[in-house]
Amino acid sequence: MNEFEISLQELSKLDIDDYYLIDIRDKISSSYGYIPGSLNIPNDQLYTNYDKYLDKRVVVYCKKGEISKDTVEFLREKGVNAWNLTGGYLAWLVENISLDKKEDEDKAYALEVERSLQKKFRKTIWSKFTKAIKDYELVKKGDKIAICISGGKDSMLMAKLFQELKKHNKIPFEVVFLVMDPGYSPENRQVIENNAKKLNIPITVFESDIFESVFNVEKSPCYLCARMRRGYLYSKAKELGCNKIALGHHYDDVIETILMGMLYGAQIQTMMPKLHSTNFEGMELIRPLYLIREDDIKKWRDYNSLYFIQCACKFTDTCSVIGGDTSSKRIEIKQLIAKLKETNPYVEGNIFKSVENVNLNTVIAYKKDGIKHSFLDNY
């Protein structure tokens, strides 16, 4: 153990009032899961506001305890009594996910999670899920859907929702809960498998070498990784006899994508609720969480004492490191929407509805099937 390191066991012996526990990951990473009682202060903010934490010990953590080492060194140079949490959030997560519950206890817990969807979260989650299924015609008779599970809060919720839909829906369809291991570390894979067991989700795991393939890619490795993952998922789903794959993108992803396209891509586009695959004939992608707010997903997670990770990449300490500009831009967009909401509480709904109310009579140009059309064509 390096100097100024503190283990989880040592931390547990301290009085919570005697130290600050600070999560230095970005807001997006922290939103997927955090150590209870910690403060989320991203690195850049902590570096400029460290003087607020001079009165007592500071314990810092990131995803795996690597980036936080440099933060501790910086803080100590500034006179802060700083310590690095060995292993970071991932070590805490592995230790705190119950591994010794009996099978009947796991089933009882899973039933409580399911009841919460039908009762406490019926209006905010279940009803919006079924509305998206109906309004966008995402599930049809005879479908076999691969529910793609990354291990985060969104995909795990989606899996539970589909289990409930199977119970209550009169339309016959099949599901496969598909997990692709693109080269997870043993700890990351253990977290995913333990959460699936805890939630009574019968996952099918297959492996690929995507992480190795993108490790040396300097420009947009996360983008390439996501594209490759989707290709592998389509291929495996088709091999298993599926005609659809389901991804866990939610309402907030949709409105952020709209604004990112406008502000950074100079285009108006949205994340579609479903689309046909161009490379895998007969396959379709659906997004059943399309109408569900991320804050409600977080409330479901916290209510059921669930803990997840955002990115299971074994090469990086936080997704923001490898994600680069894309990750920081999404954080900027989240902050922009939050700021706009202070003066206009309807701003999120208006962004979402804007792509449902496009008036082609007032659009200078648009693309259809890759062909650009101008208002001058019919002027």
Describe the structure.
The protein has 379 residues and is α/β, with parallel strands linked by helices. It has 3 domains: 5-96, 3-Layer(aba) Sandwich (Oxidized Rhodanese, domain 1); 103-314, 3-Layer(aba) Sandwich (Rossmann fold), CATH 3.40.50; 326-378, no CATH class. Helix content is 46%, strand content 14%. The chain has 16 helices and 13 strands. The protein has helices at residues 8-12, 27-31, 43-48, 67-77, 88-96, 103-118, 122-135, 153-168, 186-198, 210-214, 221-239, 251-265, 294-303, 319-323, 325-343, 347-354, and strands at 5-6, 19-23, 39-40, 57-61, 82-85, 144-148, 174-181, 203-207, 244-246, 274-276, 284-286, 365-368, 371-374. β2 (19-23), α2 (27-31) and β3 (39-40) form a beta-alpha-beta unit. The longest helix has 19 residues, at 221-239. It is globular, with a radius of gyration of 22 Å. The protein starts with a strand and ends in a 5-residue tail after the last strand.
Give the gist of this structure.
With 379 residues, the chain is an alpha/beta fold. 46% of the residues lie in helices and 14% in strands. The protein folds into three domains: 92 residues, Rhodanese-like domain (Oxidized Rhodanese, domain 1); 212 residues, Rossmann fold (3-Layer(aba) Sandwich), CATH 3.40.50; 53 residues, no CATH class.
Number of continuous helical runs:
16
- Contiguous low-pLDDT stretches (5 residues minimum) are 317-324
Mean pLDDT: 89
Provide the helix percentage: 40-55%
Strand tally: 13
Task: Name the strands of the widest sheet in spatial order.
Answer: 8-7-6-9-11-10
